Amino acid sequence: MNRSRLRLLILCEDQLHQAFVERLADRWDVGPRQRKVKAAPHARGSAAQFVLDNFVGFVKSWRSQHDANVGGIVVIDGDEHGLLRRRQQLIAKLAEAGEAALDRNDPRFAIVIPCWHIETWIAWLCGHRPIDEQTCYKPDDPQGSEVGRKIKKGEYSARIAVESWARPSSDEAMHVPSLAASRAELRRLGVRD
Amino acid sequence: MLTRVSICNYACFAEMELVLPRRLLLVGSNGSGKSSLWQVLVALQDVIVRGRDVAEVFPTRSLTRWQDHGGIQAFAIDVQCGADIYAYALELQHDPARLTASIHCEQLRRGEQLLYENRDGEVRIFGDEPRVDGLPHTTFPFGRKRSFLPDIEARPDNTHIMAFREALGDLWLIKHSPAQLAPTSAEEAAWLERDGSNFASWFRGVLADRPEVGSLLNEALRPTLPGLQRIAFEKISPKVRELMLHFRTDAHDYSVSADELSDGQRSLLLLHGLLVGAFNRRVVAFLDEPEIGLAPHEMQPWLAQATAALEQHDGQLFVISHHPAVIDYLAPERTIRFSRPGGGPTRIDEVTLETTGGASVSEWLSLPWVYEAEHE
Fold this sequence. Notes:
The complex is a heterodimer. Chain A has eight helices and four strands. In chain A, 42% of the residues lie in helices and 11% in strands. Chain B has ten helices and 18 strands. Chains A and B meet through helix 1, strand 2 and helix 2 of A and helix 7 and helix 9 of B.
């Protein structure tokens, strides 16, 4: 794949995912004309099911692209399932549909699973401490409400988070292992940190 | 930031209140009231910033047909500027016999503090610092046909009124009509007309202030107008300039007037001009069907750039659309659907993933039976 001509098809859950992955794409010089995003409508609860329901169709659509420079990124929160189980859920969807499994080393496809959810990564990258992957950071959650409110007010945002993407903290893998794992996943696409 | 709008007794709105988030997508059937909401904000901006007569912008025929409030029509908006929340309310009295409207009461508050009032033909200005006795700093008689807010001069003791008026001035209400875009400009214009017709004059003014915006527009349009080299104004008389686009093909250089572009290309010119010329600061943009004339692949890139620019400057974006690419790009934010069950007053419902049953909003909206309740 010619990295300077990278094109991206993106499937994600919600507006925060969309903003986060689009700011990352901007960082990789994959501009708005080189990407196509599909995200769930605003949801009262989790939109993870939207990604699970659309995953097979998304993979088929990506596989049908005749341009080898088209990469695929799927973003789905780990929520209570965690990284490994969420990944297995996606893989199981392909198997159920009789679709060939994804090659884990395919340099054109990345599965990104923020745990607990994308708010965890945004708060971590915006410098909030302490952060862990067991807390839900929604405004109405008793434990994570401070982060949730800051994201809602725009104090923490996808844009600010991605600005510090290139400077991972030394203790990132300990506190936010899903983020460290996703960096490796995305590097396979040939994009810079 | 515009945080709330409320409308009573206007067109298809009997009583309507809407809390406005940072991004909002408005969908619904034709005639369901989406553009009427846009029109109310146009009229309020005309009254508060441009000094137009209320009778012109709120004609008596704009009263709701199916209810009688004694000819009273009311509007209110909340605007947040930093930590301050400004609440503006306008109450009009219509005279159905003479078909005219006049201001019954107009108020501007900052939190609980009254800053300005125009009641029954008397204007009272309280200024930034309220008097100990609670009385206004200034009181004088004024006609009921228009607001005095546009006439208030900026002074150190009325900074709050100015902040509110400037915030309303930075409300970009656009419903462009590509065919109306005039290629020539006799002078710079401070405002972009809502139909985009004076784009050339407005952009000429932008370039006079910020010449670098010309190359930004070139860069923005180059991927969509193949061969584009530069956009420039050419002198066709001592005052008049024509907006020209210069192209290069393999062997030839050629120029075309903005007038010679297709409708879709004019839409692109206007939308990208707006992006580079206006979205570089905190603004509120309310676009009514921005997709007019555009090829399907053009909307998502423009929306991606617009939302990124507005996010960077803490701006706001409201979009009315029937276009699947626009709808599905903005639906992850917040979507409201306008409908008029049985042809009555407008009803507003939030559309969520739960509403659509897991489908995309555009897919859901394309189902004819979604609209059955409107015809019962």
